[in-house]
Amino acid sequence: MYRCATWTCPELFLLLLYLSYFQFCPGLALPSVPDYLQRGWQRLLEEGENCADCRPEECPTPRGCLAGVVLDTCDCCLECANLEGQICDLDNTNHFYGKCGDNLECQLDMGDLSHGEVPEPQCICLTNTAVCGSDGKTYLQLCKFKETANAQPERNLTIVHEGPCESAPQILSPPYDIWNVTGKDAIFGCEVFAYPMASIEWKKEGSEMLLPGDDPHISVQFRGGPLKYEVTGWLQIQSVRVTDEGIYRCFARNKIGEVVAGATLMVLTPDQLNMTGLTLPKFRNQLQEYDADGEDSDYY
């Protein structure tokens, strides 16, 4: 048989075993089968065991192929290639899981493996260089640009240049309104994308002074990330007082432009917190813990 001449047939054996289980034990629950195996078996069932004579005029036209097209296992018809992160055939045969698309390579994924797990071959993008599209948007890698271009061919997207598009800052995650009790800490966060990289400054409404100024119980920190061309800033107020209550604003700017976002800090005394019937606004009483001292390899 054509496939067995190419494979050692472990996948085909598993398929036959699975189908036999289904045929002879209909009253039993079917074993759980990973999606990527189901996909491979479906390919076997649809394509059969060997290749017929190639008639290109009878080939269906593949549609919606975000990663481009590749020849099928018989090198006859075009079919959709596998996207980044999809399971693929490590030997590049396109027999079982499928073949990776443009600018993608099938590699073993060795990351985030639990004890006893076996690494799976996945399509990996060959370049992590950002590109600037003709739509003025930055794509953090070529493969993401290709997916968008293939999904919307009518837009005729092209690459203007390698590297990100110059853009004014965009606040991806603004500071949130929060409340806390006197003596506790309060933290505001502000995550910004921009190229060139943006600078972040903090001010309290009613004052033109940049924080922290000379106030020892207020501090600011900055770090690149979490993604490329992003920067995150934090404003921390230690042992908040009633006088700290107010609106705090994050200003992000580069040579292209400036953007601002604000949030309110509400400060309660312990007596106010314990008052019967006191209704608190739907503010956060604490923010997620930011690892402001951690390392970030995506700082550009």
Automatic annotation (TrEMBL):
Pfam families assigned: I-set, IGFBP, Kazal_2
> What's in the GO CC field?
extracellular space
Show where the Ig-like domain sits. Answer: 169-266
Annotated IGFBP N-terminal domain ranges read 47-126
Q: Mainly localized where? A: secreted
Q: Which stretch is the leader sequence?
A: 1-29
Task: Tell me yes or no: is Disulfide bond among this UniProt entry's keywords.
Answer: yes
Record key words, sorted? Disulfide bond, Immunoglobulin domain, Secreted, Signal
GO biological process, any: regulation of cell growth
Query: Where is this protein found?
Result: Secreted
- Which GO molecular function entries does the Swiss-Prot or TrEMBL record give? insulin-like growth factor binding
Kazal-like domain span? 101-167
Q: Which PANTHER family match?
A: INSULIN-LIKE GROWTH FACTOR BINDING PROTEIN-RELATED, KAZAL TYPE SERINE PEPTIDASE INHIBITOR DOMAIN 1
Q: What is this protein called?
A: Kazal-type serine protease inhibitor domain-containing protein 1
What organism does the UniProt record list as the source? Eleutherodactylus coqui
